[in-house]
Amino acid sequence: MNEDFLRRAIELARSAREGGDPPFGSLLVGPDGAVLAEERNSSITDSDITAHPELKLARWAARELDPDTAAGTTMYTSCQPCGMCQGAIARSGLGRVVFALSTEQLLGLKSGGDFPVVPTEGPALFEEAKAAVDGYYD
């Protein structure tokens, strides 16, 4: 772990907040220790609820890095990635994530607590859904 990279992620979070966005920032460090890319949250200024810095970096890495390089990277981020971002990070093949603030710690700082939970139902129509997917991952 490199505390200087974490401090940079926190600086990016401050910058996001100063720019009118939620206070989250991240950077991606390559296998050689060089910073490959930096992002900050822009979900308000971009009118895009998915404009989290971790997701933007995961998408960048999936487009720009070969799998071996991606696997050797470390994402440093000001806060533990949310579920959406965790999924993107896993699918992009990044090597690891180091965060400064945990989700539990973040929720302790929010006056409203956790985000609302959307009710879900399922599984349903297994055979029909299976037919669309079966064999794709072979």
From TrEMBL:
Name used for this protein in its record: tRNA(Arg) A34 adenosine deaminase TadA
Lineage of source species: Bacteria, Bacillati, Actinomycetota, Actinomycetes, Pseudonocardiales
Domain named CMP/dCMP-type deaminase: residues: 1-114
GO molecular function: catalytic activity
A Pfam family that the UniProt record links to this protein: dCMP_cyt_deam_1
Taxonomic source organism: Allokutzneria albata (Kibdelosporangium albatum)
Membrane-crossing segments per the record: none
